[in-house]
Amino acid sequence: MAQRERVWRVVEEVLERIRPRDSEIGEALRVYSIIRDRLSRGFPHDVFHIDLYGSIAKGTALSGDLDLDVFVLIPREYGKRWIRENFVRIAREALGDIEAEERYAEHPYLRARIGGFEIDIVPALRISIASEAITAADRTPFHTEYVRRMLKGDLGDHVRLLKKFMKGVGVYGAEIRVGGFSGYVAELLVISLGGFVEVLESASRWRPPVVIIPPGAEDKVSMSEALRIFRGSPLVIPDPVDVRRNAGAAVTLRKLSEFIVASRLFLEKPTKYFFEPVEINESMVERAIEIHSYRGTCTVFIEISLGRNAPDNIWGELRSLSRRIYNILESENYPVLRRDEYWDEESGEALIAIEMLACSTREPLEIKGPPAWVNNSVDFIEKQLGMGYGFWIDDSGRLMGVRRRERSAIEAIEAIIKAGTPKDIKTMIRISVNPREVIDRWIDKPGFKEWVYTLLTSVPRYMAHV
Questions:
Q1: Distance between CA atoms of 68 and 142, rounded to whole angstroms?
Q2: Which whole-number Å values give the CA distances from 24 to 29, 53, 65, 184, in the listed order?
Q3: Is 5 a domain residue?
Q4: Which stretches of 134-247 are assigned E, i.e. beta strand?
Q5: Of 392, 399, 398, 431, residue with least CA distance to 413
Q6: What is the pLDDT of residue 67?
Q7: Residues 6+ apart with CB under 8 A from 450
Q8: Which residues pair with 343 in a beta bridge?
């Protein structure tokens, strides 16, 4: 069987499971009708416009994941301040007995739940052209219109496949927690490159920075202009409804690289697990502990307590602290390998994991000095001798020496945290280098087994079945 046939065999099997049934769509539209009718009490149609956007409206929704994006379009002259001061109050009153949680993006919005559906109720300013957008939400109607117009034939199914693949390999989501591909970017990739397999074949050859010009943007910006305008972005996709914006701006180099690798692996050995990774159970976590022990590295787990804030703010601060710890340890020559973070929103507690070659307390360090012939070579010698260490000159003429660490990695981390943390990092609960102790405390938290398995094994979840 030719390789492309193997790919399509897997793809067609997966597509049967992820394409929503008519009954699912019908139930989603019924829930939308309930929400729309309630909201119209507080946002009358002669002033406001209420509509359904997102994947259901575009025809790219996944079965079992039919969350609704209900937008209330507000006259532009009302402005952002009116939204901040009035939207949530009026929407809550209009919804009546439908419970809704207040959440935050560029401005507050509500998240309601009815049955198995999650409904985001989002305010946006009604504008005539996308370039007038003041917030990201203002462009949404134009994105929906563009995608509806451009998704010809069965391309909606190709978007479904790409979104499911991206979810399976852990690169789906433009929020800070993920730093990956939004649903809109997945749609733009399919529209621009022609289909699901075509996107993966293209991605398998990508070299960052990657530039893709979607249909409708070619006459407004060239590849060279896009590279110049969005310099520093690993993925550049000028938004066809507003080319001043890079639709791919949220995608980090790490997530772009993960997508490239997953695309190559899938095209080489296609399996359903790229779309539907195995569920990680406790026996697999036990195996992960053994693998980590066999590998011989040391992982420091920092347990911290967080305040309450918008998820993107919390993730931003958590990543900021994690990055600072990693960078300081690296600057002090600790043998750090990588870092990762986990947050349990319900308990308000989080973990920062720093993997190192070793956590031994005060192993000696090799110190590289300057070449013997430069002006400050004597300063290096005097410092080494003053600290009670000697020096030598290697075959290249460079001054070399050895020093012992003044503090262990654990002591260094404690000092870093004591020196100050972002405002929503409340306290450090404990530091542990024993994975089993940490797992025993955290095993029942949502998503933790998947996170810790991948961390301890260094194996992507879509390969956990191997």
A1: 17
A2: 9, 17, 10, 22
A3: no
A4: 210-211, 235-236, 238-239, 242-246
A5: 431
A6: 85
A7: 280, 461
A8: 350
Averaged pLDDT for residues 407-427: 92
Write the pLDDT tens digit of every residue in 264-320.
999 999 999 999 999 999 999 999 999 999 999 999 999 999 998 888 899 999 999
Into how many domains does the chain fold? 4
Q: What is the mean pLDDT of residues 220-228?
A: 95
pLDDT of residue 339: 97
User: Which structural domain range is residue 236 located in?
Assistant: 151-274
Which residues, in sequence order, are CB contacts of 245 under 8 Å at separation 6+?
139, 238, 239
Q: Tokens in use for 274?
A: 């790229």
pLDDT of residue 10: 97
Q: Are residues 176 and 314 in the same domain?
A: no
Pair of tokens at residue 390? 């000697």
Question: Tell me, what CATH number does 39's domain have?
Answer: 3.30.460.10
362 pLDDT tier (thresholds 50, 70, 90): low
Spell out the alpha helix ranges (H) of 361-447: 377-386, 409-418, 435-442
116 and 218 together in one domain:
no
Q: Give the CA angle between residues 176, 177, 183 to the nearest 5°.
A: 75
Tokens at 428, concatenated: 């450090």
Omega cis (within 30) before 270: no
CA distance 37 to 95: 9
- Whether 42 and 124 map to the same domain: the answer is yes
Q: Give the number of other Cβ atoms within 10 Å of residue 146's Cβ.
A: 23
Residue with tokens 């979840």: 461
366 confidence band (pLDDT: 50, 70, 90): confident
Helix (H) or strand (E) holding 150: helix 140-150
